[in-house]
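ok here's Acetylornithine aminotransferase:
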Amino acid sequence: MSLFNVYPLFDITPAFAKDVFVYDTDGTKYLDLYGGHAVISIGHSHPHYIQAIQKQLNSIGFYSNSIQNPLQHTLANKLEAMSDCKDYQLFLCNSGAEANENALKLASFHTGKKKILAFKNSFHGRTSAAVAATDNKKIIAPINAQQEVDFVTLGDIQAVEAVLKQGDTCAVIIECIQGVGGLDEMPTAFYTAVAKLCKEYNTLLIADEVQSGFGRTGDFFAFQKHGITPDIISIAKGMGNGFPIGGIFIQPEIQPSFGMLGTTFGGNHLACAAAIAVLEVIAQQQLLSHAKDIATYFIEKTQSLPKLVTVKGRGLMLGLEFDFPVAELRKTLIYKHHIFTGNSKNPNLLRILPPLTIQKEHIDQLIAALQKEL
Ligand SMILES: Cc1ncc(COP(=O)(O)O)c(C=O)c1O
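and the structure:
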């Protein structure tokens, strides 16, 4: 059977990975500044992570959500302590799209309304409501187009109010730093004004932290810099360091009922063990402050690069915006310098999403390669 060909692939076959490096089947070593699309948080094949998953697999890997699973409580308590987001409830699922799908569904259940407000250049996933809230017509099938979504320019608070005023919007879904869209972020005043308007018009505020969460920006969540309290926070990617797990934090006033949300695989034993191990490593190795330190170094080092327009993002969710399209440069970095980087909707932006364990010497390696090519 052939594979359904939906991905343009680089001609590289990873066979082994360790910390910030990926090795292909010929033994070529690649520096991973892409993290498998912001997924690898604590580094590839971290020994504590491997041990935790192996140990769990030797006892019980999976049972459905019809029994007690103390690991879910352990994970919830650790998440609360480390994120400093108090009193939320946790629902576990398997991916970022699923997290957003459940968040939007919950907002609709809770408010009784059905429209969504999303932002231009957003990306929230490929399932029903999540893809409808994604600003990319190419990936929205007719069946998804039934969702009613208003797209507003990030930063345009008058436009947000004009939509919410109509009274039929169940949720505003926002990436505080846009990932796929190209790392745009607004000043704090915008986020606080959106949060205030959501309260005023009985609309839930969903912070999509699928990419920016779990310490990627140097804060546990990107929205925390702006001092807002979202009603729902969606998480995935870095949460499992490659093990598929996602979830939503849900404000206490949103009341659950049996059957309201559900999943077969979500929150299974193995997934919980992976996410708990990730949190333990983040704490032990102080990866949040480390991410901020490396970002400072990165910004300083990149200032000397020719053709650089600006450095975007924060922590280890970074982008180098050049004055030319970077597709060729990205290929050269992979095939000639053996460095993985990411792209975005902005053709001039090279995205840097490394494991949070990255060191200064790895940044130096990128800078040397860029100096040479530019
Ligand atoms: C901000 C954001 N939300 C949601 C998603 C969807 O996550 P998943 O691919 O796990 O469904 C992504 C994926 O890139 C993302 O960047």
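+1. The chain has a mean pLDDT of 98.
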